[in-house]
Specification:
Length: 376
Amino acid sequence: MSKLFQNYKRAAIEFVKAQGNYLFDADGKKYLDFSTGIGVTNLGFHPQVKKALEAQAERIWHSPNLYQNSLQEEVAEKLIGNRDYLAFFCNSGAEANEAAIKIARKATGKQEIITFKDSFHGRTFGSMSATGQDKIKEGFGEGVPHFHYAVFNDLDSVKKLVNAQTAAVMLELVQGESGVLPAKQDFVTALVDYCQENDLLLIIDEVQTGMGRTGKLYSFEHYGIEPDIFTLAKGLANGVPVGAMLAKAQLGSAFGPGSHGSTFGGNKLAMAASSAVLDIMTQAGFLEQAWENGNYLQDQLKKALANNLKVTQVRGLGYMIGIETTANLADLVQAARDKGLIVLTAGTNVIRLLPPLTLTKEELDQGLTILKEVFA
Ligand SMILES: *Cc1c(COP(=O)(O)O)cnc(C)c1O
């Protein structure tokens, strides 16, 4: 009998080894990974990340935030480039969103935040309250007040919720957990204009869409916008726990000494891994290749599944792809696993693919072949 809470529905296999873009279970069965954990090991089990972790472990693996941390400075610089942001490091996506919610409230002196139906922002009280899905909150009683939920891709529904106490609007540009739903360009453009005109901060949750997942370092680059605040986690350290909240430098005074913190935040191992991740992702042509390959995968799936009566839509952005289906999701996941491919689900009717950005053309075609068989 397991001594663990049964809060996860776990499959009956354990991955005990990984190499590049492949996983191995306890019986030695080999799987191609089109899930990257849940959008975490975006570079697969990359030797350069492993080397950075080993080298850092040799030096020092923890130092409290009472002292200088040049690794945090280094990662912040790589994340920010020539934009005008400041960074705060924590340990997860939920924590990054907590920091975003806190700085938005403090910087504006206002409390209300508009998020969206079917959004997902995390499981802590603040981030859970920001989340626009009742099933995530069931049984936990009253949440953090002052969140209001607009309809995704519908600006009028946002306007109806805005009042003098509104601090910010917060969204994912591709809703991940609820079914891989991309925001429409004209909605985002109009929302950004509306926020600027009405002095509302724009918070983009890039926890899943960030770190190359959509073929750009941040998904907001696709939309030609710059949020006031954005959050990162999943792919940031390729599997070492980390989160980050970045906000425009002019909001910096809201997070002065003693205002916010995290014991483990910006841990040296996590920062060493993040630094290596960013070096790899910013190599000339790397993200362009991922963008191209993601589009290839999406196009090939669209072609192959066009006449499939059980597939209603293939959609996504870059290497974040959803296959909406009327077939049983658990059966599809199991069928893929039997054939040596790991995939995810999202919402109630979507097979979600979050493959490593490092897939070779051969691996890509191997996964595609299995997916075609599974849906046939
Ligand atoms: C996964 C996810 C989170 C929560 O991240 P944790 O690290 O599990 O706390 C928040 N927002 C989005 C968009 C996510 O996909």
